[in-house]
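I have a small job for you when you get a moment. Can you supply me with one protein entry, sequence and fold together? It will help me judge whether the discrete encoding reads sensibly. Write everything out right here, beneath this request:
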Amino acid sequence: PQLRRAIEECKRLILALPEHSERQKDAVVRLIHLRLKLQELKDPAEDEPNIRVVLEHRFYKEKSKSVKQMCDKCSTIIWGLIQTWYTCTGCYYRCHSKCLPLVSRPCVRAQVSHQAEYQLSICPESGLDSQDYRCAECRAPISLR
């Protein structure tokens, strides 16, 4: 009930603010976050049982496929005929159902949609050798295989 009241208040605020203002854009983003939170709290048996929302990812349960996929969380093979797995509709992040609660990276598409400007400077990052050929975020080894 509190979340529903917050959503209604946010809707009123959006309508009251000047159109195309920064405050209105922020309120719209807030409304989206509130609605996603409400969807997370709903019983999965309701409405859309094949959708799970985690860190702004919208994960859909995949049907079994014979093609082997890789889990983006644990970097192991997803055996489509045997295991249940999910794919984010925004950034195509794939993971096992067991890895879903462990996802720590927010959806890239959601981050980009909140960011209204482009980064026009050349990327200042150093190469993989300075990272010891490991992922900068999770420190998993990166190889050509």
Remarks:
- The chain has a mean pLDDT of 79.
- Strands lie at 51-54, 57-61, 69-70, 77-78, 85-88, 94-96.
- The chain has two domains: 1-42, 51-114.
- The first helix runs from residue 2 to 16.
